[in-house]
Amino acid sequence: MIKDISQKSEKENENIKTLTVGYTSYPKNVCPTTCAVCGDSASGYHYEVPSCNGCKTFFRRTVLAQRKYECKKGGNCFSSLPKDRRCSCRACRFQQCVAVGMNPLAIQLVGNAKDNQLLQEIINKRKYADDQEPCTSKGAKLSSSLFTVEDSLDRLIEGLVYLEIKTEKFRKSAFNPHPSHIPPLEQMLSSSSMLNLADKIGPMPNWPLPNIPVPSADEIAKFKPGMHPLHYDEPERKNWFFFDIMSSIEWAKAIPVLHKLKRRDQIVLLKAVVLLCFNVTQAFFSYEQKSSMVIHPDGTSPGLLPTLFIKNNPMGEGFFRLITEPLIRNKIDKKEYVLLKALVLCNATVDGLSPEGQRILAAERDRYNSALFSYCMATRGVAEAPAQYAALLSLIDTLHHQAKIQKDFHVLLQISRPPQCIRVNLIEEIME
């Protein structure tokens, strides 16, 4: 027993040591579990370091406001205080943010970076520390290359990949609310992220599942008095249309630019782009499963309504291949996909956005555009990169076309739907 405790202690010491190294030492494509600043649960990579939302927000606000804090206990609070009291000292908390590698240049600043005195002090301290450290040092040294454009773009991509891993885990989780229990859009935006629920409740058991059989004429006849012929009353079977609309909103809530927008702009934007994010998410997951047809995490495919239920159905098998086939044809990789999805979200041309919202989204879209083109150049080469970049951007037009078909189809269903059928407010908002 004593031996086991000793081994655990050594492992914990190793984990503590990792909190003092720069971002380049953190493994890529791995979901961080621990905030490098305070030791709490990490929500992702923020400003190039695994961190929680609290430390991310604290660092950003301190840099933007150029606040100066003073420690009254000698600047050693993080080494002398217990974990739950460390962050009570703002001076030591900010010092720790800088020490573990939070990059102030990764913050979208208001105005010129040269005018931010606190930011310049951090950069100068880093440069001085680099000059004083020997080249072989592996301590808290942070290379000046941390601030290069290429490295910043790389961190941007890694953060999106991490978020996608969290979203995939959420889709596969045992969380399965009834569609009628899904709140409206504004209420969802006011609540905290649900993506972390996947870590608490675990994956859905007993997957894969068989497809729901195509309804018979008798079953379809039940639809007329208000009984939906496609049942989702099995606890392990998700209604993927409702669930993935919800998961797309939860994904968007984790993108920092959304929180820079006013609430009205958030609602206007998500009403316009959520369906596109929903479609590209389902398509890329299917593509990763080597399927040209949309396939869900439980192994099922979207149900195709027979012609006796609705004539001239535009959502046949071809509809569900609109995005998967270009993904296959262009051999899209995951990093290209997450950047494409971020570009879809940052649509500054959506009708109804305020001028400020348009400006914020346009600036963020430029960042993702630059990252996507740079990534294509780095991975595809000069000869192939422009064509790959153009192919990726053309997918956005296809996603808009696909969403229009879905919204037109929704209107068609409303005409034939009896008034007593369940209406899900969130879906009605998205399908407007």
From TrEMBL:
Query: InterPro entries in the record, alphabetically?
Result: HNF4-like_DBD, NHR-like_dom_sf, Nucl_hrmn_rcpt_lig-bd, Nuclear_hormone_rcpt_NR2, Nuclear_hrmn_rcpt, Znf_hrmn_rcpt, Znf_NHR/GATA
Any idea where the Nuclear receptor domain is?
Answer: 32-109
Is Ligase included in the keywords of this UniProt record?
A: no
Known SMART domains for this protein?
Answer: HOLI (SM00430), ZnF_C4 (SM00399)
Among Gene3D superfamilies, the record links this protein to: Erythroid Transcription Factor GATA-1, subunit A (3.30.50.10), Retinoid X Receptor (1.10.565.10)
What are the alphabetically sorted keywords of the record?
DNA-binding, Metal-binding, Nucleus, Receptor, Transcription, Transcription regulation, Zinc, Zinc-finger
Where is it located?
Answer: Nucleus
Extract the GO molecular function terms from the UniProt entry: DNA-binding transcription factor activity; RNA polymerase II cis-regulatory region sequence-specific DNA binding; zinc ion binding
Q: Does the keyword Heme apply?
A: no
Mainly localized where?
nucleus
| One term under GO cellular component | nucleus
Q: Where is the NR LBD domain?
A: 205-432
Give the top-rank taxon of the lineage listed in the UniProt record for this protein: Eukaryota
The family classification in the record reads: Belongs to the nuclear hormone receptor family.
**Record's protein name:** Ligand-binding domain of nuclear hormone receptor
What species does this protein belong to? Necator americanus (Human hookworm)
